[in-house]
Amino acid sequence: MKNYPPEFKADAVALYESRPEATIRSGAADPGSNQETLRNWVRAAGASRPRGRRTQEAARPPGPLEAENAALRKKVRELEEEREILRKAAKYFARETRR
Asked: What confidence tens digit (pLDDT) does each residue in 44-55 have?
């Protein structure tokens, strides 16, 4: 049984929550954890997927450039979160191999 540090668990839950299209299966594959492990972390965190707020600005359809910019910003956020999780995982496993 693996013991994960609390930061790793929080990051994995945050990554899962940041992707509305993600499933537990795909979310568990990214940080390299088990599906049930991630499901338990999500439940323990009491996290729920954020729901978008509808404002008047959000009610009108975005133009093609606005939509592309939003998609690119979302992708950058996801990649930054993934990179941070992988960096922490690499540190954790490097520390484990030294013991």
From this structure: 888 555 544 444
3-state secondary structure of 44: helix
Q: Where in the sequence is the domain holding 93, given as residue range(s)?
A: 6-47+63-98
Amino acid at 21: E
User: How far, in Å, CA of 43 to CA of 13, rounded?
Assistant: 9
Angle, vertex CA 16, rays to CA 12 and CA 22, nearest 5:
145
**Domain assignment present for 38:** yes
pLDDT top residue among 1 and 77: 77
**Token output for 80:** 């930054």
Domain count, the chain: 1
- This prediction's pTM: 0.44
CATH, residue 82:
1.10.10
